[in-house]
């Protein structure tokens, strides 16, 4: 007997994944309602959640390890680092973690969810397949 999952009525697989920035991890650790709703929505729609390693480095203080289990932890490869550097050069004024988040999302055409959409939107304008949504 097959163990295939049947689709739930009215719930389709998400067409795009979600890449998280540091602000979302902080909001999750503080049990912010909007951040918790985001994770629930991703689970229901089976949207992939990606957390770039640079985000973990900026956020990690030795607690809440279980938050890292909700998604795919993406290593900082040389190619990803180079793309982030190119984004920084093209936009200026942003930081390396934000540039890595956008470069990571661009690899998959993800939506970036952030607590600080201003800087990330400037970076996302330099690539064609990334949208930035504020955490509400």
Task: Report on the architecture of this protein.
This protein has 136 residues and is of the alpha/beta class. It has one domain (18-134): Rossmann fold. Helices cover 46% and strands 13% of the residues. It has helices spanning 22-29, 33-45, 53-59, 78-91, 96-108, 117-124, and strands at residues 18-20, 49-52, 72-74, 111-114, 131-134. It has a five-stranded parallel sheet. α3 links the parallel β2 (49-52) and β3 (72-74). α1 packs across α2. Mean pLDDT is 89; it is low at 1-11.
Please outline the major beta sheet: 5 strands, parallel
Helix content: 40-55%
Sequence of strands across the biggest β-sheet: 3-2-1-4-5
Overall tally of domains: 1
Q: Residue ranges: pLDDT <50 for 5 or more in a row? A: 1-11
Keywords:
alpha/beta; 136 residues; single chain; 46% helix
Describe the protein's topology.
Elements: E1 18-20, H1 22-29, H2 33-45, E2 49-52, H3 53-59, E3 72-74, H4 78-91, H5 96-108, E4 111-114, H6 117-124, E5 131-134
Parallel strand pairs: 1-2, 1-4, 2-3, 4-5
Helix pairs in contact: 1-2, 1-3, 4-5, 5-6
């Amino acid at each position: 007997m097959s163990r295939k999952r049947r689709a739930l009525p009215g719930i389709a697989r998400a067409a795009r994944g979600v890449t998280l920035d540091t602000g979302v991890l902080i909001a999750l650790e503080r049990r912010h309602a909007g951040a918790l709703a985001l994770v629930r929505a991703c689970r229901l729609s089976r949207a992939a959640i990606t957390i770039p390693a640079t985000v973990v480095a900026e956020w990690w203080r030795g607690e809440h390890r279980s938050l890292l289990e909700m998604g795919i932890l993406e290593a900082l490869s040389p190619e990803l680092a180079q793309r982030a550097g190119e984004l920084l050069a093209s936009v200026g004024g942003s930081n390396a973690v934000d540039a890595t988040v956008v470069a990571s999302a661009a690899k998959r055409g993800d939506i970036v969810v952030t607590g600080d959409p201003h800087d990330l939107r400037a970076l996302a304008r330099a690539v064609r397949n990334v949208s930035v949504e504020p955490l509400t």
